[in-house]
Amino acid sequence: MKIYINGKLVDKSSAKISVFDHGLLYGDGVFEGIRSYGGSIFKLDEHLKRLFDSAKAIRLNIPMDEDGLKDAIIKTLKQNGLKDAYIRLVVTRGAGDLGLDPRKCRKPSVIIITDNIALYPKEFYVNGLEIVIANTRRNPKRALDPQLKSLNYLNNILGKIEAIKKGVEEAVMLNCDGYVAECTGVNIFIVKDNTVITPNKDSGALNGITQLAVMSLARDDGMAVKERLIKPADLYSADECFLTGTAAEIIPVYKIDGRPIGSGTAGEKTLRLLKGFREMTKTGGVRY
Ligand code: PMP
After folding, report:
1. pLDDT tens string for the chain (288 positions)?
2. Gap from CA of 125 to ligand 1 centroid (Å)
3. DSSP secondary-structure letter at 95?
4. Active site residue 149
5. pTM, whole model, 2 decimals?
6. Nearest alpha-carbon partner for 218 in 200, 238, 246, 192
7. What phi, psi does 227 have (nearest 5°)?
């Protein structure tokens, strides 16, 4: 397996960066998780746009343009002979000294890791997933905006640790006002009376690319779509609940904090959206 680091494709065993890289020392950098299906990269332009937006927000100048990054991703995928892949695109602040000062980091590092996609267990999609609400609140926008996909995931990891401690795989994170924001690495939706609802932009979640795709699928399917504030009580009384993300696609939720959601099984509308989403991944991507 070859890894792309700063213009070179190197063996996995020799793919190394400096211990002075501020990506390592401070989580100072940005990233994207992208997926390819059957030799076609899904929503690549959207992922690159989000990467550049995140970089701009932390005043990090990516030393390549969008086309350059596209070419580098395709070159890496081809080199590794991958058709169905998970692509991790990382841009760090680069090597500096032991202080925080980003001006000491003269050259950002661009890293592309491609691998076979690690699929979630099939039963998650058939029976659904049990989740809990974490005590750890999602970072407030005014401290570290969750719309910025940075390398600093400690907030999410604390939520994930709570999930694991309670014997489940995912946790809902509330914002500091007590409204639902998202899960630790996926967005969240509920379905109530033929309306598909997801937290609005002010709720403090990452603007998910899968989330946006699912909203348009739901509209095409004749469902109403709303972005609004969601309270924990709305989760418990939902007809259906599901999670979305690049790697996860759409995962039904059957239980939250030990309470069955709807019929206590994977929701019918959720499964219909999953079917539609999988169809969507077959068209419109960037072929290589
Ligand atoms: N929220 C967080 C915190 C994430 O890290 C991710 C991506 N893994 C998502 C939501 C889902 O976003 P996307 O659909 O763009 O992968």
Report:
1. 999 999 999 999 999 999 999 999 999 999 999 999 999 999 999 999 999 999 999 999 999 999 999 999 999 999 999 999 999 999 999 999 999 999 999 999 999 999 999 888 999 999 999 999 999 999 999 999 999 999 999 999 999 999 999 999 999 999 999 999 999 999 999 999 999 999 999 999 999 999 999 999 999 999 999 999 999 999 999 999 999 999 999 999 999 999 999 999 999 999 999 999 999 999 889 999
2. 18
3. B
4. yes
5. 0.97
6. 192
7. -110, 115
Paired tokens of 262: 């709807």
Q: Minimal CA–CA distance to 215: which of 194, 197, 241, 242?
A: 197
Answer whether 148 contacts ligand 1 (Cβ < 6 A): no
Helices (H), 137-257: 141-144, 154-165, 209-220, 232-236
Pocket test for ligand 1, best of 149, 217, 246 (most atoms within 8 A of CB): 246
Bridge partners (DSSP) of residue 250 are 244
Shortest-distance Cα residue to atom 4 of ligand 1: 185
Atom from ligand 1 closest to the CA of residue 209: 15
Please give the distance, rounded to the nearest whole angstrom, from the Cα atom of residue 205 to the centre of ligand 1.
9
